[in-house]
């Protein structure tokens, strides 16, 4: 099974409004609620692709119960969330229907006690042993040490399990130094990590800092991958408009599914780029438009080459 880790799980609430105006009051035209936090979105996409998935992380309080109920309704995902005293956060995505843009409001998450972090580490060590790959996704809730992802990367590597890290800031910087197999920063996260705003230069720098493969998600410019074997770009055939929440998580799911299926890098990137665009076309995070995915997959342009055997 593929293991996804979401330390800061969230009940994702999506509001649709006709037009979003700062300082104004709004009538919401549609509301949806889903289990969220990046790793849970990755889990849903992987399960929809037919992979066995186990989802771990923290879940507490009434919001934690809601997101566990939501997970129980999602076929193909084993719930291995660790109970905690504090309530899981809510994250709000407000979709402006007129310009097709989304504004995101993310709560910080519950405070995790040292004993809860230790209980998680014990559960994680067990789960990693039966995983084919691990995804470590999203922000850290208060109380979790800033070096948490570095520790989780080291454990996965010690168990011989490939590990992908998708986070930002200091947890990313420390996690990269622990040498994960893949990182998937967006342009801002990559610039913050390396100090460079030039994506190729920044990806090469992140690779030198310890990430075996860097896959940068560059919005409409698609994906850029750099590793010791080569460099590739993958661009969808057209710009898609919709709800981009979870588009990066679909990239992670595409990369991991390609990894466990031993697809070569160009195939993995094409899948990841097509899934990401198909996620923007679906109204809520963690879901994708399957027909659009299949059509886009045929038309993603992958460029680049292997530079070494
Ligand atoms: O605060 P984080 O953990 O960085 O991001 C959380 C989040 O915004 O990311 C997902 C979309 O990628 C949403 O489902 C979720 O609520």
Automatic annotation (TrEMBL):
CDD domains: FruK_PfkB_like. Residues 22-283 form the Carbohydrate kinase PfkB domain. The keyword Nucleotide-binding applies. Gene3D superfamilies: 3.40.1190.20. Pfam families: PfkB. InterPro entries: Carboh/pur_kinase_PfkB_CS, PfkB_dom, Ribokinase-like, Tagatose/fructose_Pkinase. Coiled coil: none annotated. SUPFAM superfamilies: Ribokinase-like (SSF53613). Keywords: ATP-binding, Kinase, Nucleotide-binding, Transferase. This is 1-phosphofructokinase. It comes from Streptomyces colonosanans.
